[in-house]
Amino acid sequence: MPASRRHHPGALRSTLSAACVLAVGLAVSGCTKSADGPGGTAAPAAPVVSAAAGADKICGDYKDKTIGVVHLTTADENESTLVTALKEASDAAGLKWTFKEADSQGSAEKSQQAVSTFVNQGVDAILLLVVSTRDLQPQLEDAQAAGIPVFGQWSFSELDPLLVQDYTPIPAADASALAQEMFSSLYLQQPEGDIEVALVNTDLDILGARNAAVRGLATLYPRIKIVDSANIDFTDIAGSTQRIVGGFMSKYPDLDAVWANYPVAGPAAAQSILAAGKDIQVFTHVAQSEGINALQDPENPLTAMPWLDFDFQSYHTVEGMLTHFAGEEPGRLEGYENPVPFRVFTKKTADELTGAGVAAGIGWTSQDGQWKQPLVDGWGAEFPC
After folding, report:
1. 162-167: average pLDDT
2. Which residues contact 85 (CB under 8 A, 6 or more apart)?
3. Please, which residues have CB within 8 angstroms of residue 236's CB and are 6 or more apart in sequence?
4. How far apart are CA 316 and CA 334, in angstroms?
5. Pairing of β 224-231 and β 195-201
6. Cα radius of gyration rounded to whole Å, the chain
7. Which residues constitute the signal peptide according to the record (predicted)?
8. How many CB atoms are closer than 10 A to CB 225?
9. Contact at 8 Å (CB) between 167 and 312?
10. 136-175: buried (b, 16+ CB within 10 Å) or exposed (e) per residue?
């Protein structure tokens, strides 16, 4: 089963081609629309995914594994959403994997300690969640020496030889879509004159591609002026965001929009603007439940945000682990070749963020998760003894 010849079940391919997902630079409209949302009635139940239809044929050698998960911060709801989907995928396939979680609280030292602890415990695999390998080289070498494979989500270390696979959404893709939604909508709203945009940024190298995409695309819109940029403090994300945005509003009285690179910063920026009574729009990324509520609130300045299919990402991460346990290596560049779906949601489509089909019940997954069962069923044929 060489990695170069492995493919996804045909049913999955067809669901992906039908999904409402477009490539870089496109704000995608929805396939379906629901009036229910987090602020209204309960979201539709997630589709039932079970092992009964074929995944029960997965070799028993790949079951009952222990996976050590190293978080950047468990305060990030998106990280918890990813782990919930990992657990759902494991349960759906009858794998009965145990996920041990460690919170590095944004500290490189704590992430190093977490990896070392998992190596000493002899876990079957380690997953770095929004944690770069740059600060972990000695610990990853210890893991390799112990025969423990290391995987990543949002580690942006797909070329690190000590990492088996980093299956992560393409950060420049959703950033490009959001940037062009932002610049184009501002152009339509203001047919003449300069348009001032300020960036609430981060110095995390793993999110650098988003910054590069926004700045690069801004050059294609002559009236867009990036007037300022400042990095948040990860020890005080909300507070530092509010201070940054307060400074922007004082310094640039004609500011038209704020773009926030890191999810938690988006709602904090919107709250600061709302409190000041300013007419400034906020564009941000996957801003968790708080962002959904803000987007659904017509009075809140949060205007648009992409949502990434975290369930799709986690199911395919489990598939990558199974591939490794089966003695083959998953594609290092699969995140580019079979990218995680996403959509850009606006005030007009915010009520479609119902959590339908999502393991954690938050946000959005393509086709309400109907792609899950065909994918899981295919694992029985792909990973027998």
Report:
1. 96
2. 310, 311, 313, 314, 315, 358, 359, 360
3. none
4. 9
5. parallel
6. 21
7. none
8. 16
9. no
10. beebbeebbeeebbbbbbbbbbbebeebbbbbbbbbbbbb
Residues 6 or more apart in contact with residue 101 via CB below 8 angstroms: 69, 71, 74, 83
| pLDDT over 90 at 18, yes or no | no
CA dist list (Å): 294 to 191, 238, 282: 27, 15, 10
The two tokens of residue 295 are 């987007």
From CA 63, how far away is CA 80, in angstroms rounded? 22
Structure tokens belonging to residue 361: 């019940």
Burial of 227 (0-12, 13-18, 19+ CB in 10 A): middle
61-120 pLDDT, tens digit each: 999 999 999 999 888 899 999 999 999 999 999 999 999 999 998 899 999 999 999 999
Domains (range + CATH), the chain: 3-166+309-379 (3.40.50.2300), 171-308 (3.40.50.2300)
What gap in Å lies between CA 288 and CA 302, rounded to an integer? Answer: 13
Strands, DSSP E only, in 223-314? 224-231, 257-260, 281-283, 302-308
* Phi-psi group of 346: left, alpha or beta (phi > 0 → left; psi -120 to 50 → alpha; rest → beta): beta
Q: Which two tokens stand for residue 41?
A: 């009635």
- Is it the case that residue 25 has pLDDT exceeding 50? no
Asked whether 240 and 233 are in contact (CB, 8 A), the reply is yes
